[in-house]
Structure of DUF4386 family protein:
Amino acid sequence: MKRFEGLAKPSTLAAGSAFLVGGILDQALRLAGEPASELVQSPLYAVRSVALLGGALLLILSLVSIYERHAKQIGPFGFSAATVAGTGTILISGQFWAEAFLYPTLGRVAPDLLDGTERPGSYAFGLLLTAAVFGVGWMLLGSAILRARVYRVLPAVFLLAGGAISLLPGQALGQLVLGVGLVLLSFSPTYRKHEGPQRQGSQVH
């Protein structure tokens, strides 16, 4: 067994669960209709941001574990997809760190920045770049998993859809959908291409 294989299932399940919690709380906060500069002061926003940050950090471990287990099956395309997805996940981890620890302060000292009335070019570009790399990376990885048929179809479809929705910056709906895919993936048996599910010794650990 390779070094990270045993971490694939628990890290994927934990990352998906954290994204589910963070994504649901994000949508609940948006329904409140309050300005972002006020929302970031609430305890619920703190829980939301820490959950998304934890999910992103766990997702890096999950990605390494899944790739290491299925590197041969997903091939060069899968390697490229995993590289882009990993880069995007690192970028979005930085964004979620800022949302957890920096945005509450910005809500007090620079509310126009969070409310969108002022949007410096570098800040807007950073949000767009992060969303683009993360979204495209997970779309590619979902496509690689579908192509190699190493898991059931449904989890890969949710990963692909989560990546597509993540292309829209400034909200966590994409992470919510991605979280569903990760949870499903953690319980999905692994497959060899053109064969049935592998037995206990070959399933994700």
